[in-house]
Design brief:
mainly beta
Length: 98
């Protein structure tokens, strides 16, 4: 059986440090952005986040021609990392680019 990906936008695999800030509490987590698309991204962090929680994500750019990524996002999923029990993969839907 062939699996057909029905996403509207291609996901780009990324391995970049990301800073996730919980909007309500101001709590910050450093993690790794795993993938990125026009409408969302997934980030691996050490703490679980609640579905529906609003966050700000910042990924600095190492290029002078590419600006840093800075967006407000909503948590749409959070699951334990299969390879590490103390890591969580958080799926984020981009709400607004800052």
């Amino acid at each position: 059986m062939i699996h057909e990906d029905k996403r509207r936008f291609m996901r780009m695999m990324v391995n970049a440090q990301a800073e996730v800030t919980v909007s309500q509490s101001g709590e910050k987590f450093l993690g790794t952005c795993q993938d990125l698309s026009a409408t969302g991204l997934s980030v691996e962090i050490e703490q679980p986040l609640e579905v529906g929680e609003l966050v700000t994500v910042f990924i600095n750019s190492k290029s002078t021609t590419i600006p840093p990524f800075n967006a407000s996002a909503k948590v749409v999923r959070c699951s334990s990392d299969e390879n590490a029990t103390d890591r969580y993969v958080v799926g984020l839907e981009i709400v607004q680019f800052n």
